Amino acid sequence: MYKAFLAIMVGLGMTGLASASDNYSYTCDRGKQERKISVIYLQRESSLPCEVRYTKGGREETLWNASYAEGYCEGQASEFVKKQESWGWNCTLDQPKTGDSLPEDTETRAPESG
């Protein structure tokens, strides 16, 4: 019960607690099996657009996405975590990754003349 409450509170409050570009995920395990539920922000400093991605068996798929509904991805991820826990999975919020990069971060730069 406490884990479900924590997942709801974190999921619903994540937008206000972290900058919008801070992707986060839950890892759910049951025995030797593992699942990952991730909230991915596609633009820096904005919580939209966003996606909820689900990884199982090495395959990742996008379950939900939003371009206009603030808090939609966070709410969907939180509800899906609760559903996983009701099926017997143990889900925990992963520590935020620092240094997550967006596609624009990998652009090549022109060599500096010197």
Describe this structure in words.
With 114 residues, this protein is of the alpha+beta class. The chain has one domain. The chain is built from two helices and five strands; from the N terminus they run αββββαβ. Strand 2 (33-41) and strand 3 form a beta hairpin.
Main structural class: alpha+beta
In percent terms, what proportion of residues is strand?
25-35%
Number of domains: 1
| Count of strand segments | 5
What summary fits the major beta sheet? 5 strands, antiparallel
Break the fold down into its secondary structure elements and pairings.
Layout: H1 2-17, E1 24-30, E2 33-41, E3 50-56, E4 59-66, H2 72-86, E5 90-93
Helix pairs in contact: 1-2
In a few lines, what is going on in this structure?
The chain contains two helices and five strands; from the N terminus they run αββββαβ. The protein is of the alpha+beta class and 114 residues long. The chain has one domain (2-95).
Q: Could you name the key traits of this structure?
A:
about 110 residues, alpha+beta, 5 strands, about 30% strand, elongated
